[in-house]
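Entries read chain and fold; for instance:
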Amino acid sequence: MSFEQQVKERTHELKNLFSKGIKVVSKYSKKGWVKVKNLRK
């Protein structure tokens, strides 16, 4: 496997991890915002 192919595979893996991370963070931050809003009332 050439160096360019390795780099392409790495960036592909990172993009997948990144998108998964964003989904998880947005999910938890929504729950967190609901708690914060409830506390402020």
Q: What stands out?
A: The first helix runs from residue 3 to 40. The mean pLDDT is 90. The two ends are 59 Å apart (CA to CA). The chain is about 95% helix and 0% strand.
